[in-house]
Amino acid sequence: MAKKINVGMIGYSFMGKAHTFGYKNVGIFYELEALPVMKVLCGRKEEGVSAAAERYGWESYETDWKKLVHRDDIDVVDICTPNNQHHEIVIGTAEAGKNIFCEKPLAKTLDEAKEMLQAVRKAGVKHMIGFNYRTVPAIVLAKRLIDDGKLGDIYHFRGVYLQDWIVDPSVPLSWRLDGEVAGSGPLGDLAAHTVDIARYLLGDITNVVANWKTIIEERPLQAETVKGTGIGDVQAAEETGKVTVEDAVMFLAKFANGALGTFEATRFATGRKNYNAFEVNGSKGSVRFCFEDMNRLEFYSREDDDYAQGWRNILATENVHEFAAAWWPPGHIIGYGETFVNEVYVLLDALAKGQMPTPDFVDGVKCQAILEAVVNSVKSNAWEVVETEF
Ligand code: SOE
Q1: What is the atom index within ligand 1 of the atom nearest the CA of 133?
Q2: Tens digit of pLDDT for each residue in 130-147?
Q3: pLDDT tens digits for 203-214?
Q4: What is the whole-number distance in angstroms between the Cα of residue 257 and the centre of ligand 1?
Q5: Is residue 155 lining ligand 1, measured as CB closer than 6 Å?
Q6: Residue 225: what pLDDT?
Q7: Looking at residue 230, what is its pLDDT?
Q8: Which residue in 62, 96, 301, 384 has its CB near the most CB atoms, within 10 A?
Q9: Distance of CA 189 to the CA centre of its chain
Q10: How far apart are the first and last CA of the chain?
């Protein structure tokens, strides 16, 4: 009989649904040393969280996260709340001696993130941060090609994360547009992913210089969250409020390995829905990826015969492609939800073996340090050094 890992999850909207999808499906596709038990779902509104617990398949519900984290029958706490709650809940959970899986971005500020890392280190608990795109087979393939030297010396990383869900001025002020709750706009929500992918592929970033803009400064307040799966599914009120985050951000970066980086994140790229894309150029070749075609990686090699050089389009669904082997036969592609199943497998496999999952809170803090340097650069209008030792 496989061991069990008892999970308590805090938050049940978009990321809560995605993580639940992970726990419910991981045992179908992965041989696990320990199976997850979806013990308790936590949310502030009893009516909402009780209905979600029943629909999603959680054994029970709780409205007080402090009670959840102190339950003896919980082994790991999964934090899927808005960003402003991560700091308090992580510290309280670490003090309760529980392992932690926290959604990105780790925190609203670098100081908060450092305190969270200190708390989990002091408590000696395992910790993972939810950079789900690290489990996309095509992105893992990009890393394998780079690490195997197929691109040669790396010159450029070029990453964009483009959405357009708030280009309409009538879209209300949901929490992702409130600086007090989110900490930043597309910088923490989207560029955090691109920064993590860049670090996963090429290593640390040492300097940045940035620019950002709030394009629509006043929006209707949110009246209520309407049923639906979209992150922008909210009802507009009569009153309006100020947008207190950037709508679009761009920055240049220097990598420790000498590569040059360009980053862009916006929710005003009209027509782009979840356009999480990057290109890496090196002395021997290049790779290019776009999440809107997530099963494919484009690869160019100067080592091909000169008459045969061109962009190859690799379908990363073969057993030889990490994470792909767990899924369907070659060519039966996977989607966004499956990245959370892969991520939950990484978490549960590490916990069952008593190991630290990857990416962990050090990755979260290093990402936060880059985001913070971007904020500082917008203020100073100059290049900023990124803290890289934690
Ligand atoms: C909203 O922009 C969002 O849901 C992000 O919060 C997620 O991290 C990203 O994966 C998809 O878009």
Answers
A1: 10
A2: 999 999 999 999 999 999
A3: 999 999 999 999
A4: 29
A5: no
A6: 61
A7: 56
A8: 62
A9: 8
A10: 40
Nearest to 153 by CA among 281, 303, 253: 281
> Can you spell out the DSSP letters for 301-366?
ETTS-GGG-S-EEEE--STTSTTGGGSSSTT----HHHHHHHHHHHHHHHHHTT---SS-HHHHHH
- Residue 274 beta carbon below 6 angstroms from any ligand 1 atom: yes
Asked if residue 336 has its Cβ within 6 Å of ligand 1, the reply is no
Q: Which two tokens stand for residue 159?
A: 């990453």
Q: pLDDT class for 379, splitting at 50, 70, 90?
A: very high
The residues spanned by each domain of the chain are 3-132, 137-293+295-334+368-380
Which CATH architecture fits 137-293+295-334+368-380? 2-Layer Sandwich (3.30)
For ligand 1, the distance from its centroid to the CA atom of residue 31, given in whole angstroms, is 29
Peptide bond into 359 cis (omega under 30): yes
Nearest CA to ligand 1 atom 3: 189
Using pLDDT thresholds of 50, 70 and 90, give the confidence band for residue 224.
Answer: confident
Are 115 and 108 in contact by the 8 Å Cβ rule? The answer is: no
Best mutation site among 14, 104, 166 for ligand 1, i.e. most ligand atoms within 8 A of its Cβ?
14
Give the tokens for residue 32. Answer: 């696990």
The first and second tokens of residue 390, run together, are: 């934690």
In CATH, what number does 3-132 get? 3.40.50.720
Q: Tell me, using a 6 A CB cutoff, whether residue 343 lines ligand 1.
A: no
Verify whether ligand 1 is closer than 6 Å to residue 14 (CB atom): yes
Least confident of 21-25, 109-113, 170-174: 170-174
Task: Yes or no: say if 78 and 19 are a contact pair by the CB < 8 Å rule.
Answer: yes
